[in-house]
Design brief:
heterodimer, A: about 120 residues, mainly beta, 4-stranded antiparallel sheet, 11 strands, about 0% helix, globular, B: about 110 residues, 5-stranded mixed sheet
């Protein structure tokens, strides 16, 4: 299995620009999670989906952030407009209902490092 | 969710056994203790999970005392490649909201 695939790996943009991060979960996994990692706050959960439906978005920092999952094999995290404080590494993770998610085993992608100038 | 407390960082020499502690005083009956490892420029990966006593796999051992208010991850004979951030999480059975926090930065020194 290819694992969780994220793109882009690195993105540098200017303040005010729209940023779209993409994620392809492991085939057959029905939970998808978006996390953000910074030195100050560590690894924070932003939102997660079950069967393409957003279940908990309480971690999304503000209205500038939005996430979608149009189908079981693709999700996006969009920031519009972006700000320098959004600079972080964004991770996508997926999990299976068949036991992994209940025991806390998530499979992470390699992350998208975002720098907003 | 039960909150966990870990040291921020620790150093160890190559070849030594490393023990990383975690406190989770408010752990509930249906909670499991789970550890993740994150190498630089990678996402975290699941290492081990336990409910009580001792669990061992090819990577580490997890020791959980009877009161379950703490746990210790033990890495035998660490190498430089074990330098990573180690996260202790309390996972409530059926709850998908995992709180990672900042973890414990372990640096292995030659």
């Amino acid at each position: 299995d290819a694992g969780v695939i994220q793109s882009p790996r690195h993105e540098v943009t200017e303040m005010g620009q729209e940023v779209t991060l993409r994620c392809k979960p492991i085939s057959g996994h029905d939970y998808l999670f978006w996390y953000r990692q910074t030195m100050m706050r560590g690894l924070e959960l932003l939102i997660y989906f079950n069967n393409n439906v957003p279940i908990d978005d309480s971690g999304m920092p503000e209205d500038r952030f939005s996430a979608k999952m149009p189908n079981a094999s693709f999700s996006t995290l969009k920031i519009q407009p972006s700000e320098p404080r959004d600079s972080a590494v964004y991770f996508c993770a997926s999990s299976s209902l068949a036991g992994d998610v209940e025991t806390g085993e998530l499979f992470f992608g390699e992350g998208s490092r975002l720098t907003v100038l | 969710l039960a909150k966990t407390t870990q040291p921020i960082s620790m150093d160890s020499y190559e070849g030594q056994e490393v023990n990383i502690t975690c406190s989770h005083n408010n752990i509930a009956t249906n909670d499991y203790i789970t550890w993740y490892q994150q190498f630089p420029s990678q996402g975290p990966r699941f290492i081990i999970q336990g409910y009580k006593t001792k669990v061992t796999n090819e990577v580490a051992s997890l020791f959980i005392p009877a009161d379950r208010k703490s746990s210790t991850l033990s890495l035998p004979r660490v190498s430089l490649s074990d330098t990573a951030v180690y996260y202790c999480l309390v996972v409530h059975y059926g709850n998908n909201r995992l709180a990672f926090g900042k973890g414990n930065q372990v640096v292995v020194i030659p």
